Structure formats: structure tokens, C-alpha cells
Automatic annotation (TrEMBL):
Keywords: Antibiotic resistance, ATP-binding, Nucleotide-binding, Transport. GO terms for molecular function: ATP binding. The keyword Transport applies. Its main location: membrane. It is a peripheral membrane protein. PANTHER family: ABC TRANSPORTER ATP-BINDING PROTEIN (PTHR42711:SF17). It holds the Pfam family ABC_tran. This is ABC transporter ATP-binding protein. It is found in: Cell membrane. It comes from Paractinoplanes ovalisporus. Residues 4-229 form the ABC transporter domain.
Length: 303
């Protein structure tokens, strides 16, 4: 069942066509990431889905409602975590979360929520005493206060250190386990790769593609890079025939391959035949970021 169904959604700001006939669906319990360069139309789409912005045309159904006319009953069913919510600095974490929970008819227990986002030891700390990453956790707790069926996460880990980002990812994974549907926007492709079941890539208001991160990587038809070093450049005599000419720099070899499996097989068989060690042998398939960049740059060329 689709939690979000968008068909031919269009929205212009004066002469700027910010969203141009965009269609996609997000299934129940799915994590869907909207990706795209600055100005691609992500925020406009998300605000229309949240019911905070009007559309010019198209059909939008979220949780069985039209967000444009759903009013407060609709908004009580969704959670919104913005990039930087302004907080009342003198409140403690527990006070703020309790206040937020009290706004909703169907709500989480405030203390459970504080535990869920990993702020248990900061319950009685005033907001002004929280670090940037802890504030983002508080943002998340506030967005979850109404036990939302659908959560909008806007760049949830911007400014996080690597450990805090990993914690945030674990938290999102836990929310997935609770059955919450999540619409995520992010500029971190690794984050989308890690979290999203499917991603949609926007550019200049158009939805270029939708698919799983693996489908996008495979669809990019970008090469895999095979690289290795040998103990001595002399060992490279008699390299087997490969699908493309290898780039050799001293004792280091880099092969840009469109046929990685047979190339890998030939190289490992060659190495074992010659008794040569390949200590840093690496096979690097294209990442989601590679696929995203190829896709959005290609689209720029067409325009
Ligand atoms: N209130 C507005 N008035 C006029 N133009 C706007 C307004 N909001 C957005 N735009 C324009 O609409 C287009 C899409 O903007 P939007 O904020 O939806 O993109 P985005 O993908 O969220 O960008 P970012 O990644 O930078 O947040 C841009 O060209 C932007 O300049």
C-alpha cells in the first residue's frame, strides 16, 4: 500500500518551474530518499507533502488524505524534523519533549522518546547546554512526539561527526523497525545508500530516476576499478590479457573495467600461477555517489 502517491505534481514560483510533473510513490514502512543538487525542488515537494505549501497541479495523496486540505488532523499524523528548529534555550530536554508530546492526541511517552534518541543522560540538561549533535537528536525526539505514521527527515545528519552520524543511522533503522515510513532528503549519498530502500533523483524540478541504490548503481553502467600493487615492477611482466589496457605506474596497476568478474579471475589466477602476492588488491564498483553525479551531470548536458 502506498503511504505517499504523487502524480504529475507541478509547482512554479513566478517564472521558475520548481517542480515539473513529478510522479512517485512511497510504500508503507519504506524509507525513501529524495536526492538532488541545490535548487532541484526537494524542499518544495516535501513542503507540499507536509501540507505547508500549495501546488499548481497534479494529484497528491498522503496517508489517504490530500495534504492541501487535511488540516490539523492530517498534520497530527505526520512528523517533521527540520534542519534547525529554534529551541527555547532555558527549557530542559524533558520539559521540551513533554510539552511537544502534549500537543498530540496520539503520542509517545516523553521519557521513552528521550531514551530512543539517546538523550537519557541529558534529560535534565537545559537546551543551551547541548552540543550540535545532541540538539539534532532533540529535533528528532520532537518530530517523533506525535508517534507519526510518516516522518519527514530533512538532512538529518548535517554537521554530525562520523560517530554521531552512525548513531543517527542506527536510530533511523530502529524507527524503520517500528514500521514508520520515512521520507528523507539528504546531500550525503553514503547516507542514502545506507538508509534508503529507494531513492529518487531530482534535477531542475524533474525526477530523473527512481530505484533502489543498487539499481541506480547498476543502471549507471559505470566501470569498476580494479587496483593492486606487486612487490616489484618486474613481477608485472606477463600480465594476462584484460578487458582494457591497465594503467601501470611503477609497481601499481589500475584497471578501469566494464567486465570486472573475468578480469578479477584472470588476475588472481595469474598471481597464483606466478606466486606473486597482491597485498592491496581492491575491486571498487561504482558507488551511489558516482551514479548520482553521472546522472545529474548528464542531465545538465542535455539542457
Ligand atoms: N519561496 C520561493 N520563491 C521563489 N522561488 C523559490 C522559492 N522557494 C524555492 N524557490 C526556487 O525553486 C527552486 C527549487 O527550490 P527548492 O528549495 O525546492 O530546492 P531544494 O532541492 O530543496 O534545494 P536545496 O538542496 O538547496 O535545499 C529553486 O530554483 C529555488 O530558487
Amino acid at each position: 500500500m502506498a503511504t505517499i502517491a504523487v502524480h504529475e505534481l507541478t509547482r512554479a514560483y513566478g517564472p521558475v518551474l520548481a517542480v515539473d510533473r513529478v510522479s512517485f510513490t512511497v510504500g508503507d514502512g519504506e524509507i525513501f530518499a529524495l536526492l538532488g543538487p541545490n535548487g532541484a525542488g526537494k524542499t518544495t515537494i516535501v513542503e507540499i507533502l507536509e501540507g505547508y505549501r500549495t501546488r499548481d497541479s497534479g494529484v497528491v495523496e498522503v496517508l489517504g488524505c490530500d495534504p492541501a486540505s487535511g488540516g490539523s488532523a492530517y498534520r497530527a499524523r505526520i512528523g517533521v524534523v527540520l534542519q534547525s528548529a529554534g529551541f527555547e534555550e532555558e527549557f530542559t530536554v524533558r520539559e521540551l519533549v513533554r510539552l511537544q508530546c502534549a500537543l498530540y492526541p496520539r503520542r509517545h511517552d516523553a521519557d521513552e522518546l528521550i531514551d530512543l534518541v539517546g538523550l537519557a543522560d541529558k534529560r535534565t540538561t537545559r537546551v543551551k547546554g547541548l552540543s550540535g549533535g545532541q540538539r539534532r537528536r532533540l529535533d528528532l525526539a520532537l518530530g517523533l512526539a506525535g508517534a507519526p505514521e510518516l516522518l519527514f527527515l530533512d538532512e538529518p545528519t548535517t554537521g554530525f561527526d562520523p560517530a554521531a552520524r552512525r548513531h543517527a543511522w542506527e536510530l533511523v533503522a530502529r524507527l524503520r523497525g517500528l514500521g514508520t515510513t520515512i521520507l528523507l532528503t539528504t546531500h550525503y549519498l553514503e547516507e542514502a545508500q545506507h538508509l534508503a530502500d529507494r531513492v529518487g533523483v531530482l534535477r531542475s524540478g524533474r525526477l530523473l530516476t527512481v530505484g533502489t541504490p543498487d539499481e541506480l548503481r547498476a543502471g549507471s553502467r559505470l566501470p569498476t576499478v580494479i587496483s593492486f600493487s606487486v612487490p616489484s615492477a618486474r613481477d608485472l611482466a606477463g600480465l594476462p590479457p584484460l578487458s582494457a589496457p591497465p594503467q601501470i605506474d611503477g609497481d601499481h596497476v589500475r584497471l578501469v573495467s566494464h567486465d570486472p568478474l573475468p578480469d578479477t579471475r584472470r588476475l588472481t589466477q595469474w598471481a597464483s600461477r606466478c606466486g606473486t602476492d597482491l597485498p592491496d588488491f581492491a575491486v571498487s564498483p561504482p558507488t551511489l555517489e558516482d551514479a548520482y553525479l553521472a546522472l545529474t551531470e548528464e542531465a545538465a548536458d542535455v539542457r
